[in-house]
Each structure stands twice: as C-alpha cells, then as structure tokens.
Design a protein that fits this description.
- This protein has helices spanning about 55-60, 60-75, 90-100, and strands spanning about 5-10, 15-20, 35-40.
- By secondary structure, the protein is α+β, with helices and mostly antiparallel strands.
C-alpha cells in the first residue's frame, strides 16, 4: 500500500497516510477538523535493486553462459570428492543379531 502526503490549506498541518490505491483521498484535517485537506503529489519511493548483477547476469544468452562455464573450468577445474566406503558397523550389528538368535 502506498503512503500519501496530505496538507491542510487552512492550518498548514502536513502528514503522511498509508492508504490503498483504490481508497478515496482524505478530506478532513485531523488537526483543525475542517474539510480543507489536499493530497500532495509526492516523489514516491525509489527503486531498490538488491543483489549482484541484476542486468549483468539475468538476461545472458546461452552461448555466453557456456563460454563462462568453460572458462571457469580451465582456470580452476572441478575437484572430485572421494567416494565414501560403507562402515563396518552395519555388518557387525547384523552378525551380532545372528549370534544372539
């Protein structure tokens, strides 16, 4: 919901009001209680882009992305992790069950 700025033409009271876009403008001043309130034209909120490379990386072509990927692999090839061997705990517990049965 946008914030609108109002000013009373009689007493000069200025304030901001959070309102829905579809709601009607306020008319009654909360300070002097007269119906001489006017909605001001504000600058609005600035656009904030968060994150790195909003336009730089979001709309690249597939050929560019493939070229970047191959370039990274040449500089630092991917490191393969060694496979883990299953531990002997599961085998031991199965053997222990056979012994007790």
């Amino acid at each position: 919901m946008p914030t609108y700025e109002y000013r009373c033409e009689k007493c000069g009271h200025t304030f901001e009001q959070l309102q829905s876009i579809t709601s009607k403008p306020l008319r009654k001043c909360p300070a002097c209680k007269t119906s001489s309130l006017k909605r001001l034209i504000g600058s609005g909120a600035g656009i904030i882009f968060k994150g790195s490379g909003f336009y730089q990386t979001d709309y690249r072509t597939e050929s560019y992305k493939k070229g970047q990927k191959s370039e990274k692999e040449i500089i630092a090839p991917p490191v393969k992790k060694p496979e883990k061997k299953p531990s002997g705990k599961a085998e031991k517990s199965a053997k222990d069950k056979k012994k007790t049965a």
